[in-house]
Amino acid sequence: xxxxxxxxxxxxLALAALLLVLNGGISLWLGLGITRSLAIAALRMxxxxxxxxxxxxxxxxxxxxxxxxxVVAIMVGxxxxxxxxxxxxxxxxxxxxxxxVSTMTFAAISVTCLALTTQLKPDPWWDARYAVPILGMILGxxxxxxxxxxxxxxxxxxxxxxxxxxxxxxxFPREVALRPFVRRAxxxxxxxxxxxxxxxxxxxxxxxxxGQILAGADPVEAVKYQLLVMFLIGGATGxxxxxxxxxxxxxxxDPRHRLRLDRFQETDQ
Length: 269
Description:
- By secondary structure, this protein is mainly α.
- The protein has ten helices and two strands; from the N terminus they run αααβαααααααβ.
- Helix 5 (128-159) crosses helix 10 (219-251) and helix 8 packs antiparallel against helix 10.
- The chain is globular, with a radius of gyration of 22 Å.
- The mean pLDDT is 89.
């Protein structure tokens, strides 16, 4: 794979950023009230990406498994925080954060290690140049799936608690009483991945594939990498969401098969 990427100057980026300034002008003209949010988001994105670029450059130069592990821990910690914050209802204590982090970490890291040791096989296998970008793509999608799944499960169980309790009163175990809610939550968790796979190649060209083509890679090889990534994302999202939803089912019920709504934390939302 050859690198033929066209270098970009600060002026090139500034010219592209003018499109966001145009959006801000449209917001002011139409009174959308999103000018400030747009400016903050653009500034935050710029700072974050520049810092990530510097961190990754230093990380790739060091070739240290401990530094790579530290970056992975930071990524997982922030992703778990995002999972917890994206739920309308949270479990009491650290349960929401704990379920989100543990299931997402298991799914994302196990699938990433599988790809690094069987398909990609860099030397060493934990090379940050491969491990961090692959993990980042898998982690982001698993985070979205888990947060959507948990949010759907919690909202539907609270809204339809009488149906759950009626099933339990009739003698059905919690696994049976909550099965329709688990199915609905899993479908919601996997829907973004399914939509993304269905549209890829016809409606949209994914960022990784486009980036490789712009960098001079053979389009067929870029497609192979994109397929690998999509398969990894689909697998990790399904594994993580399933584990998270069943862990949440276990937490919102007890060994006597009672629904424990008292384990939900009141929020301001």
